[in-house]
Amino acid sequence: MNAENYQSDVDKLLFDCMDPVKLGLFPDEVVPKPVIRIVFTLAAREAGVHFPQARRREYHHDKFTAFDVWCAGLADETFKHIGTDLASYRLLLERSLRSHDAFKLEDELDGEGHDKTKHERVCLRRRMAPLTTAEDDAHHAIHLGASELAV
Fold first, then answer.
1. Cystine design at 26: which of 32, 52, 71, 106 (Cβ 3.0–4.6 Å)?
2. 43: Cβ–Cβ under 8 A, 6 or more apart, which residues?
3. 41 pairs with which residues across the strands?
4. Confidence of residue 17 (pLDDT cuts 50, 70, 90)
5. CB-based contacts of 7: which residues, under 8 Å, 6+ apart?
6. Nearest CA to 77 among 37, 39, 44?
7. CB atoms < 10 A from the CB of 119, how many?
8. Which residue has better confidence, 22 or 139?
9. Which residues have a Cβ under 8 Å from the Cβ of 3 and sit 6 or more positions away?
10. pLDDT tens-digit series, residues 83-92
């Protein structure tokens, strides 16, 4: 994630949101295998890799064992093999942190005959930032054809 409000300090709430049992990765009748959960906080100012204490099912109320990794910053300390590509990755990160106007909907398409065009523009905007809306089927809907949406 490239949100500047996440830095080098581990935020256990983010790992809690990655509960493989609640997310349905394991069927109810299966004993879950250990999982590795990784959070990348690319915009962190201080780089490093942190390993919070393993959450083992026998010591916690969780139904699974997790090994968590917190990767902070975009630097050699976090990604050892980034080498000479570091400058390019930092440019991409910088660009992703800048604001944009992709979600400012203009009214130039008001009137009859523009419904399909408006719908296509909304779908394109959702593809720029998937899973950012509160609508349940917003991301799934961008992959449906016009005939499937009419149903």
1. 32
2. 1, 2, 3, 4, 6, 73, 74, 93, 97
3. 72
4. confident
5. 41, 44, 45, 46, 72
6. 44
7. 13
8. 22
9. 41, 43
10. 899 999 888 8
Length of the chain: 151
What are the structure tokens assigned to 100, written together? 């944009």
Q: Name the residue among 128, 125, 118 with its Cα closest to residue 149.
A: 118
Among 64, 68, 39, which residue's Cα sits nearest to residue 51?
A: 68
How far apart CA 16 and CA 55 sit, in angstroms, is 11
| Residue 68 bridge partners (DSSP) | 37
Q: HEC string of the chain?
A: CCCCCCCCCCCHHHHHCCCCCCCCCCCCCCCCCCEEEEEEECCCCCCEEECCCCECCCCCCCCCCEEEEEEECCCCCCCCCCHHHHHHHHHHHHHHHCCCCCCCCCCCCCCCCCHHHHHHHHHHHHHHCCCCCCCCCHHHHCCCCHHHHCC
